Structure formats: structure tokens, C-alpha cells
Amino acid sequence: MARISTRQGPIVITFVLAAALLCYKLVQIQLLDNTYKQLANKTILDKQTVFPSRGLIYDRNGKLLTFNKPIYDLEVIYKNIDPDMDTTLFCDLLCIDKETFNKNLDKDWSDRRYHKSLPCTFLSKIDPEIYSRFQEHLFQFPGFYPIIRNIRAYPHNNAAHVLGYLGEADMNVINKNKNYQVGDYLGIKGIEKSYEDVLKGKKGVKFLLKDNVGREVSSFASGDLDSLAIGGIDIQTSIDLDLQAYCEELMTNKRGSIVALEPSTGEIITMLSAPGYDPNLLNLDEDRGQAYQQLTADKVQRPLFDRSIAARYPPGSIFKPILTLIALQEGVTYPTKYVPCDGDYHYRTFSYGCHAHTPTYNVQIALEHSCNSYFFSMVRDLIEIQGFNNPEIGLNVLRRHLYDFGLGRTLGVDLDNEVTGYVPTPEHYDRLYQNTGANWKSTYIMSIGIGQGELELTTLQMANLAAIIANRGYYYTPHIVKEYSDSQLKIDESYTQKNHVRIDPEHFVPVIKGMERVIRTGTGYKAHVHGINICGKTGTSQNSHGEDHSVFFAFAPKDNPKIAIATYIENAGFGGDIAAPISGLIIEKYLNGQVRKKNQEAYIKSLNLLEQPDI
User: Fold this and answer.
1) What is the CATH classification number for the domain harbouring 451?
2) In this structure, are 220 and 111 located in the same domain?
3) What is the 3-state secondary structure (H, E, C) of 544-565?
């Protein structure tokens, strides 16, 4: 064996002594000293989700439409519950009974949503006063963890259908999007749904060390692994809150919808469906379930149904200006055409009603008095553009134009549940008359010339038609959101692009003059406002279930228009009697800031039309 040199000896001895010292220390820490063992036993690593504040929603003038209200939930990790906890005190502090306690702990542990080592909601929406009292005793109940989150509340009771509401994420959402977990809230309807990704913000996380009775010891790793919650982005809408509230007041005890747009931008100034509801009823507080049940149980008034974009209505005579533009463009009529009318339109042995008025020597007078005979003749000329026996050619010409006008399809508004309305096709009539043994002709379908028959529109589409005429041939896709608090975000570019219709500009001149006459001396005179040059058209939509529906659309002023509006009042009768004066009041309120026609305003507000059956 080689001997250790004199020079190597001290080095070897040093290493041996160091190794012996380390081994001694290791034995002391692991076998003799229980300090770290006790610390491990005393602490629990608790991962807490920090919920962000949801983005706020404002009207076009900066008035708050929503705010966030804190609520308190109590979560539980079943595995961490002390079996000897004082359940009587626990229940007393939270004002619940033992039955509720057992029921809330009794989870289906075979369900993938639950795990005994993961937190789940034990009790939600705890009253702040109860929560404050309970929190003082929280250390006595290991396994239970408080969570603070925000729900929506509303400073006003307006624009419920536009704003929408929040709801709890279901498993379909959770399975599709890993950002949502059981108990999370998200937008279910309206702006809250359409702009969920913008409004929701981003969750944060906090890691805490707690002792075995649930008391916080310290942040884990000095908080290096924590992340802050990022609040949602605020949204400014195009809604005018004051006008919205005024419109809803006018629509009290009435059924229908109103939509008003800014023609130069496509921004929606007001949009309502009546009867409506107070948005605070669905703000996720403890009474929300009962309120929702009551709202859905009303099958007659259907307050949750948004009639402005989801109801399909026959437009009635407000369709006549659109038909005129198309007929002029296709060359089947001309502005000074005369059509005789003796109070009826006659075809063979049939008569179709009109009403007494001065002779219709031109398009302007026909629109002024809404002459049915004039427009029966016009639609037949258009459908028969390639002859009486080829009506499908003319109908397809009409359909292509109507598609340009945004009919028979969704416009693309930034709200959910928009429907297409309906524009009939040749195939529709082929199916409809296939068992009659006769081929359909223009005389079978000429009711669409006065906005009846199979033709159906939404109120939003009607308002957009008024905007197209106001702009003399184009429109911007109607939308609710103007801008975001984050300047780097821009509204969808589809809302800033012009959509043109294939109508030459000169054809709008006689139509607009005719709509001007409607207000000055025609069927829409009750919409007249002193000092404002309004162009509009009345409509009376036939209803087999009760009184006819009152319809009106308009824009104002005639030059450089600021507002385009459509008003549809169910079971209200003649369009000039109810829908026209309501629209006139709204136009005056928006453009002048006040209403001078107080008697008319008082009459409209007092009118109760809900006694009529729903359509």
C-alpha cells in the first residue's frame, strides 16, 4: 500500500473531518431535529385565484351603464376539513342549517368537476355582513376558503336587452375554453356576451402558506410566483342613455320595438324591445333564479324576447319607398307616372282595397297618401319584367336588390340573436302552389308590393332602410360599440366600411320628396315637428290575431340627417296614429333636447295597448 506523503496528509484529514461534520449535520436535521417536520406539518400551500374586475360599459356621452359589485363565496377542499370542527357554530355564523351544510358538502365525487383535493364552491353570494362576521372565525374551520369576486349591477333600469346579463359557465363552455372553471361568470346575452373577451379581464393567482388551522403564514417564495389580475377593458357604446330612457317611457304598456341609428356612422343611438325588464333583476344576486323564472314564465308579453332584432314582422307600407327605388332603377316605372285609383285595385273579378285620396299623378303623391293601387301596379310591373309567364325572373331581380338593402339576411350587428327576416324566393312559391295545379304569377304575390304577404323584416332592418335613404344609397353596418378604453383596440373594420346599394343617386330624389310630403300633408302628419324637416313613411301591417300593427320609419333632418328611426307597435292600428307620433317625439327629443308637444306626449305615455293578444 502506498504511503500518504507528508504533504498529502493534512489535505486528506481535512476532507475526512468535513465529511464527518456534514454527515453529523445531516443526521441531526433528518433524524434528531423535528423543526422542519413540524413546519411542514403546520403549513399548507394554498393557491388562490384572484378574480379581475370586469370592464365597465358607458353610453355615448360617458354615462355609466354598468358597475361591478363585490360578492363573497366560500370554497371548500373536502380533504382539508377538520372532522372535529364545530358545525353548529359554522352554521350559525353563515345563517344556514345542518341540512344545507350536509347538502353543500355532498358532491358526486365521480363527476370530473369535483375532486376531494381541489376547491369547489360550498356557498355563494354570502351577504357582506354575514361574511364579515364569519371571517373573524375562519381560522376555526380549516378547509374552507373565502373568495371575493365581482358581479354586474346597473345604476339605471334601462337598455336591458342591449346590455344583456351574466351567468355561470356551464360544462359546454368549460370544455371548450380552458380559461373558464366551475363557478366562473361570463356574458350570456347582449353586449356582455358579444364582447366577453374584451370585458372579462385576466385572472391572477396568489400562493400562500397557511398553518394547519387555515391562518395565513406568509407568501410562498416571497410572492415570486404570484401574478396580478388584469381588469377588463371598458367599452363606450353608441347608446344615448337619456334618449333610451325616454323611449322606454313612451313604450310603457305597449308591445313592440324601436331602433334609431346615426346614418353617417351606423351607430345605434337607441334600441329597445317592449315590454322589457329591469336589468338588475338578473344581476346574479340571491333572487336571480326566481326573477328569471318569472320572466320566462310570461308567455304573453315575453319580456326576455328582444323584438328589435329577433322578431320578424311584415313591414307594411314602409316598404313602398324601397320598392319605388328598385322599380325606378330597373326602368319599370318613372317619377311622373300616373296610376288611377278609385279606392280599389281591380284584377279580373277581384278587388283589393285602398282608401280615398287625391289622384296619384306621380310617385311623390303615391307615397304621400300611401296608395295601394299605385304599388300593386308597380310590383306587378317589376315581377313581370320578362313577361307575365316568367315571374321568377322579376322576383329574383327584386330579391337581389333587397339583399343589397340588407334584407333576407342578418346585417351583422354586434349583438347575438339577430335573425334574417325573410324575402320569398321563386322556390318558396313553387312549393306553396305545387298542389294547386296552377303556376304562380305576379297576381299571386303582389301583396309584397305593400309590405305584406311573405315578406318579413326586423325593426333593425327597417331602421337601416331609413338610413340608406337618408344617405342616398349606402349604409354602415349597424353597431353598438364606439370605442374601447384601450386605445390600441379598434372596432371591427366591417363597421367603418360603406355598403352601397345598386340604385343610382337620382332615383332617391323623388322618393325623399315623397317621404317629406308624408310628414307635411300625408299619412304621417302626426310625426311633424316644428323646425325639423322630417322625411318618413307610415305603415299598417295586417295582423290576423288582433288589431293591425302600427309601423313608421323616418330620418331627419332631410339634409345632413342625424337620426334614422323605425318604430313598430304591435296591435296599435294605423301607422299614422301611434308609431308616427312616437317617432316624432323621439326625433324632437334627440335633435332639440326637449319636447314641445306635451299633449301628444302625455297621450302616448298614458296609452295602454297590452290588453291586445300577442302576435
Assistant:
1) 3.40.710.10
2) yes
3) CCCCCEEEEEEEECCCCCCEEE
